[in-house]
Amino acid sequence: MTLVPSRLQDFTRGVREAFERAALLLTSPQIRPHLRSIIECFRGQTIVMSQNEIHPKARLRTVGVV
């Protein structure tokens, strides 16, 4: 996955702001590995999971969208 530098900066800023309120980042299974590799460069403690890893009865609350 390749992002132009300005889009990557916008993305990382959005993730930082969202994680002031969130416990984990939920994404699609297809981009999870790529997203994890980007995020671990600047916020290694962030949990990145795909929708497939969440139990169907788990109750989630959206606190932001990046």
Overall mean pLDDT score?
Answer: 84
Query: What's the tally of helices?
Result: 2
Structural class: alpha+beta
CA(first)-CA(last) distance:
16 Å
Choose one word for the global shape: globular
Radius of gyration: 12 Å
Order of helices and strands: HEHE
Strand order of the largest sheet: 1-2
- Major sheet description: 2 strands, parallel
The count of β-strands is 2
Low-confidence stretches: none
Q: What does it look like?
A:
- It is a single chain.
- The chain has 66 residues and is an alpha+beta fold.
- 33% of the residues lie in helices and 9% in strands.
- The chain has two helices and two strands, in the order αβαβ.
- The protein has helices at residues 5-18, 32-39; strands at 25-27, 48-50.
- It has a two-stranded parallel sheet.
- It is globular.
Set down the secondary structure blueprint:
Blueprint: H1 5-18, E1 25-27, H2 32-39, E2 48-50
Parallel strand pairs: 1-2
Keywords for this structure?
66 residues, 9% strand, 2 helices
TL;DR?
With 66 residues, the chain is of the alpha+beta class. It has 2 helices and 2 strands; from the N terminus they run αβαβ.
